[in-house]
Design a protein that fits this description.
alpha+beta, nine-stranded mixed beta sheet, 23 strands, about 25% strand, globular
Length: about 425
């Protein structure tokens, strides 16, 4: 992508309404623009990040045996009346009427919708277990939307729903999602700590929230240091096997958010306890037959009886993750994207656009990187070198490849790693080898 033709409306000044790091940097980097309170348009750079996050989520959900569907944003109120939640949910639900005066709502979550779909299709225990997920926009009418995409009213979410014949099967489904979530966040370069949580309006009696550590996090977290040493990606995971030992390894250690932490009963010595800030990015629930029973979602069991299915719900805030990653990975110059979610892998900077040698060398590098499947943002604009460097630092592309007249005379280009600031002067072939390899 050539920056001279790319839509990237960066800002030099921080908008007054931006109170936290991620909001400031997402606005300045041209990722988002506010449409109304708590509602944002995602511009090309921001949308590329969303798609990267979606891809990782999809890959891990599919690996765990889930199947993707797509449910509507607008739901009939009658489904929520069946479950009993329509009147209970509160003013966060946006209630509307269609032209026929039918009560509708902009879905804040999809337990009722997926239960209605499932009850019409599955009648026997032989068709269980199943786990269906979708990635869709949600709406919750927050009384005070703030902090950009971290607490907006409209947000992109992955929600999955498991269906099992009994508690034992539901617990196995819960464990699969528990492990899949650990892997999902680790692949994004995040250290996620699972913490036992309240179930809130979803309901149920088993729940964990996944909190990533960030200096600018919204709440204090306390945990055993062993939880930060675990590497879930290093382990071979068999989703068809028994994952209880993996879950136990992650839950046997102390971990609590500030609203649940009690210094007097904490089992970890004060000098060992990790105290940090954290951001919730995922939440999983088991709620038994809370929805299936009132909505008549039942299957025939092996004994020939009819029994309501046991369900679980599993959410990941995809648009929230874009902000959370920035909160966990930035410096005073801008964003530092982990490779796996970066909008581009390489920022190619031509320090002297219009110079024949620089244009030829940069154009050749651009073509070769694209041919090798490397996604490149090529700054070919006629701008000052300082402006180009500042722009690349702001948007956080992991690698910066710099082509300038002085270096070309010596037969080298400069390769900079954004995360560390480490720079190397390399031959063109060596630089290509590093990036393509």
């Amino acid at each position: 992508m050539r920056l001279s033709t790319y839509f990237l409306p960066t800002l030099k000044q921080t908008p007054a309404e931006a109170q936290i790091v991620s909001h400031r940097l997402m606005l300045r980097a041209g990722m988002i623009r506010q449409s109304s309170a708590g509602i944002y348009s995602w511009l090309p750079l921001g949308l590329r990040v969303l798609k990267r996050i979606e891809r990782i989520v999809r890959e891990e959900m599919d690996a765990a045996g889930c199947h993707e569907v797509l449910m509507p944003t607008i739901q009939p109120a009658d489904l929520w009346r069946e479950s009993g939640r329509y009147d209970d949910y509160g003013p966060e639900m946006l209630r509307i009427k269609d032209r026929h005066e039918r009560d509708m709502l902009y879905g804040p979550t999809n337990e009722e919708q997926i239960t209605e779909i499932f009850r019409g299709a599955v009648k026997s225990y032989r068709d269980l277990p199943r786990n269906l997920y979708h990635i869709q926009w949600k709406f919750r009418d927050e009384v005070r939307p703030r902090f950009g995409v971290m607490r907006g009213r409209e947000f992109l979410m992955k929600d999955a729903y498991s269906f099992d014949v009994d508690y034992a099967g539901a617990k196995r489904s819960y464990n699969r999602m528990f492990v899949a979530y650990l892997r999902t966040f680790a692949r994004m370069g995040l250290k996620a700590v699972p913490m036992r949580a309240d179930t809130g309006p979803i309901g149920g009696d088993l729940s964990h929230e996944f909190v990533i550590l960030a200096d600018t996090g919204e709440s204090a977290v306390y945990c055993h240091p062993a939880l930060l040493a675990h590497d879930v990606l290093a382990a071979d995971i068999d989703y068809r096997g028994d994952l209880e030992p993996v879950v136990e390894e992650w839950t046997r250690h102390y971990a609590a958010t500030d609203d649940k932490h009690d210094p007097g009963s904490c089992p970890v010595p004060a000098d060992e306890l990790v105290t940090a800030r954290g951001i919730e990015v995922g939440h999983i629930f088991y709620f038994a037959t809370k929805y299936s029973e009132p909505m008549g979602c039942a299957v025939t069991t092996a004994d020939g009886d009819s029994a309501p299915v046991h369900q679980g719900s599993y959410g990941i805030g995809i648009s929230r993750l874009a902000g959370a990653i920035i909160e966990a990975s930035h410096d005073e110059d801008g964003i530092i994207w982990p490779d796996s979610v970066a909008p581009f892998a390489v920022g190619l900077i031509n320090l002297k656009s219009g110079d024949p040698a620089c244009d030829t060398a940069a154009g050749d590098l651009y073509a070769k990187l694209l041919a090798a499947g490397v996604e490149v943002l090529y700054d070919d604009r006629d701008e000052r070198a300082g402006s180009k460097f500042a722009n690349m630092d702001l948007i956080g592309v992991p690698w910066q490849l710099v082509v300038g007249p002085r270096g070309l005379k010596q037969g080298v280009v400069e390769l900079k790693r954004r995360a560390t600031g480490e720079c190397h002067e390399l031959s063109v072939d060596a630089a290509l080898s590093r990036l393509v390899g």
